[in-house]
Amino acid sequence: MSRKTKSSDDSVYQMLDSERARCEAVLERIDRELANLPKGSLCQRRVVSNGKVYLYPCLKYRDGSEVKLLHVSREKAEEVQAQVERKKRLKQAAKETKVRLATLRTLLARNPYRRKEER
Question: Distance between CA 81 and CA 87 in Å, rounded?
């Protein structure tokens, strides 16, 4: 194998390693943002009182084995709904990034140009 071929092959693995580092950073940022978003989903709670039906928004989430309902003001309901949708998109992005990261790690494990101390 010529020196030029070895160098170009090694550069491919360097590029893959760079992409792995980028994916790990993206995953870390997603996890930090997910920690700041509300758990659960927004729903409408129906309460019947004195023959009248009242609907009000609430955040439904799990705390251990219990299902909790947290009242959300009507003014904040749209904001919370947007946060819940953002959380759903971020979870999907995290799932895709984890798959990509697993693939990159598998490819990098096959790198014949790694130094012996890295193996």
Answer: 10
Q: Which of 12, 7, 3 is nearest to 111 (CA)?
A: 12
42 Rama class: left (phi>0) / alpha (psi -120 to 50) / beta: beta
**Is there a contact between 101 and 23 (Cβ–Cβ < 8 Å)?**
yes
Run of H or E residues at 95: helix 74-109
- CA 26 from chain centre, in angstroms, equals 9
17-26 per-position pLDDT tens digit: 999 999 999 9
C-beta of residue 57 within 8 angstroms of C-beta of residue 43 = yes
Question: pTM, whole model, 2 decimals?
Answer: 0.75
Q: What are 36-48's pLDDT values in tens digits? A: 999 999 999 888 8
Angle, vertex CA 31, rays to CA 26 and CA 33, nearest 5: 95
